[in-house]
Design a protein that fits this description.
By secondary structure, this protein is mainly β. It has no helices and eight strands. The protein has a five-stranded antiparallel sheet, with no helix packed on it. It has a three-stranded antiparallel sheet with strand order 4-3-5, with no helix packed on it. 6% of the residues are buried.
Amino acid sequence: GKLNDLLILRVGLGYQNILYRKNFKSSVEIRYSYYGGFSLGMAKPIYLQILHQTAYQNQYILATEKYDPSKDFVDSIYGSASYFTGFSEMQFHPGVYGKLGLSMDYADRHDAVKAIEAGIVVDAYPNAIPIMAYAKPQHVFVNLYIDFIFGKRWF
């Protein structure tokens, strides 16, 4: 019943603040951050491989078609088409987003970064975006996330 894949590109500004500073090698630094800005939702239609029965009794033709819940049923769907099918029909939905996160840096060296971050991201669009066939199109999308961050400090 999925009509569209939603891909989101976000551009914004934010602020990060240290709640508890790391004083020793084996200690943990805790930060919170918040961001906001513009998001671009890109809705790509779902294409499926559909079986169509021919005039001959046990012969079928396999066709790649855009999913239509009114005529494509479970018994006629053979599988999904290539992910790249439908990019030319992508619809763009500009909107805004807000992100709030809490991170903990547990690296044992000053020049390394090892952290875990958890938070919430809320995207809002003026026009509703249909994702599922039998559900109401949504204006607001809420996501919970967990990031694992590792690397090297350059400053």
